[in-house]
Write a structure and sequence with these properties.
Elements lengths: L25 H9 L5 H4 L2 H9 L4 H26 L14 H31 L22 E3 L13 E3 L1 H10 L16 H18 L3 H27 L4 H9 L6 H14 L6 H6 L8 H32 L15 H4 L1 H5 L5 H34 L7 H15 L6 H33 L1 H12 L5 H28 L7 H12 L4 H12 L4 H9 L9 H10 L9 H6 L2
Parallel strand pairs: 1-2
């Protein structure tokens, strides 16, 4: 036997879902994964880092992180999904004792889905309000509702002859959203008055309604929807970048990109976070998207294409922000400074005002916010598909009720997202964003250990060669075995320091405590499942551990590929001894 089956342990073997379907084109896999490049909490931080601190030199640590960590992880997850044709829970047939990691991924995916909807609801909020004859946050529209205090003035009423009387300039689009949710006070430790937005809740439900409609389609149609949606987002982004480039002062901003004025250590620390989080590889979405590939899809090429495309999208969003912020700075020549708004919400809340100064502001508002909404929808659909696929692969009983279970899950997510339509909820969402990257790094590190150490270098290379008809070089494996874990461990230490330094942004001790529990408690599933799996087997403790660690039901699910796999390899080529696998070179 080339592989061990669950029959040997007296358990029910894995039963593949024959109705999963496949992508209609390998490009659908590429665009489905690229949807994570529009991970809004990541691409909205990148412009601030690129422009204000490191400039173009941001790309140096960014490319290093991609080359030694992200690309190997993307390839590893693509291999796992494509070889096993299963999601991020059932894939741990490769080493069943670690299946608790799959359940941690499930928890993190569900947790992030609860607040991702708000990242689409906020631009939808602005888009719908921009359909009025006079845009409310334009200088003309803000006259009817905007009030300023004695220490500040609106950017629309700025007079540089008397600027010394003011301490800050107020941006109408920021004030308009603040009027809805009191966002200005939510970043301070003092509790602002709680505020809830019914309009934002309606926007959130609309977002979830679109997601539910797409999620119920066959996988072939979902792939096409994601493909054309992603292409549309990139086309609009390119058009906006080209238009913003010709705003007054936009060309001047380029010199700051290529000649940064200073370097900040904190910014250098943030760069690996962006590289790790933009494609979300640690949560298993890429793994699950790859499970819909044909068995011989060239994942070598797609792994590099994904990461290079991610750089292009990040740079596009960066320059989009840079050009607009440079134009906005011309409206504040004395550098008084705009009212403070957190960088993660900069595009949401500042750029809308800049757009109103352009010709045809309604059209550009429609294009800009449609781009952000489509990007958020791509992310939500991809992540929900990843969750549903993994659940149906792991639990056979759910396969008979795919439609009902999907609708129930979306309904639960929609109800949960109501909380994020309050000022407390948005504060909580930002806190979750800060700690989620650390969870990704831990998951990535565990996956690397399982694949290239426990499963073994030779078996990994053998399976990759069988699946793709290409050789995965030993030096690449050594990067995955030694270099990538070191970088991930170093990035984890920096992430812990970053979260600790910014813990002051948590709204209260209660929020900080709850976030800490969310970050720590799910990981109890890993040792818990290890104990459960060990007790589930028979024999002395050493025998139980070996049976629980070695691959079970690990083979290509297609009967033709499975037969070829069995014929090509024989028992002498495989060692089930974990210690032998770890020490062999």
């Amino acid at each position: 036997m080339v592989y061990e089956t669950s029959y040997d342990t007296g358990l029910k073997p894995f039963n593949h879902d024959k109705n999963r379907g496949k992508w209609s084109s390998p490009n659908d896999f590429f665009f489905a994964c690229l949807g994570h490049a529009f991970k809004i909490d990541a691409i909205f931080i990148f412009p601030a880092v690129l422009f204000y601190d490191l400039g173009i030199y941001t790309l140096i640590p960014y490319l290093i992180t991609l080359g030694v960590c992200v690309v190997p992880i993307v390839f590893m997850q693509s291999f796992l999904g494509q070889f096993s044709s299963t999601g991020f829970i059932s894939v741990f047939r490769i080493s069943p004792i670690f299946k608790g990691v799959g359940y941690v991924s499930l928890f993190i995916n569900l947790m992030s889905l609860t607040y991702y909807a708000i990242l689409g609801a906020i631009p939808l909020f602005f888009l719908l309000h921009s359909l009025q004859p006079t845009i409310p946050w334009s200088c003309e529209g803000s006259k009817s509702w905007m009030k300023v205090n004695e220490n500040s003035t609106s950017i629309c009423d700025y007079n540089n002859e008397t600027y010394g009387n003011w301490t800050e300039l107020e941006v109408p689009s920021i004030e308009y959203f603040d009027l809805e949710l009191n966002t200005m006070g939510m970043y301070h430790r003092e509790h602002p008055e709680g505020r809830f937005s019914w309009f934002l809740m309606i926007c959130s439900f609309i977002i979830w309604g679109v997601v539910a409609t797409v999620a119920l389609k066959p996988i072939e149609l979902i792939g096409k929807i994601l493909r054309y949606s992603c292409i549309t987002v990139m086309a609009i982004m390119g058009l906006c970048v080209l238009r913003f480039l010709f705003l007054p002062g936009a060309f001047d901003s380029l010199k700051h990109v290529f000649r940064p004025m200073f370097f900040m250590a904190e910014s250098i620390v943030m760069v690996p976070f962006l590289a790790f989080s933009a494609l979300g590889p640690g949560w298993g979405s890429i793994l699950t998207m790859a499970s819909y590939n044909k068995f011989d899809t060239n994942i070598f090429r797609y792994s590099w294409l994904l990461c290079l495309s991610q750089i292009g999208i990040a740079l596009g969003m960066a320059f989009l922000s840079i050009f607009m912020m440079s134009f906005m700075s011309r409206l504040d020549p004395e550098n008084i400074g705009y009212k403070y708004i957190h960088s993660q919400w900069m595009e949401f809340l500042t750029i809308p005002t800049g757009i109103t100064y352009m010709e045809l502001p309604h059209i550009w508002s429609l294009l800009f916010f449609s781009m952000i909404i489509l990007g958020a929808l791509n992310l939500l659909i991809t992540q929900l598909l990843s969750v549903m696929t993994s659940m149906f692969d792991e639990f056979e009983l759910l396969r008979e009720y795919k439609k009902e279970f999907t609708l129930a899950t979306v309904g639960f997510m929609a109800l949960t997202s109501i909380f994020y339509c309050s000022n407390y909820g948005i504060t909580f969402a930002e806190s979750l964003m800060q700690v989620s990257v650390l969870s990704q790094m831990i998951l990535n590190l565990i996956l690397l250990i399982v694949i290239v150490w426990i499963y073994g270098r030779e078996r990994f290379q053998r399976d990759v060669s069988f699946m793709t008809n290409q050789t995965y070089s030993t030096w690449m494996i050594n990067v995955m075995r030694y270099v990538a874990p070191f970088f991930i461990a170093l990035a984890m230490l920096m992430a812990l320091a970053f979260v600790f330094i910014h813990s002051g942004k948590f709204n209260s001790v209660t929020v900080f405590t709850f976030i800490a529990l969310i970050a720590i408690l799910p990981w109890t599933l890993v040792p818990g499942y290890c104990i459960f799996k060990t007790l589930q087997t028979t024999g002395v403790l050493g025998t139980r551990l070996k049976r629980s660690v070695r691959p079970t039901d690990w083979y290509p699910v297609d009967p033709v590929d499975r037969r070829k796999y069995e014929e090509k390899f024989n028992e002498t080529e495989i060692s089930h001894n974990i210690f032998t696998e770890i020490t062999e070179e």
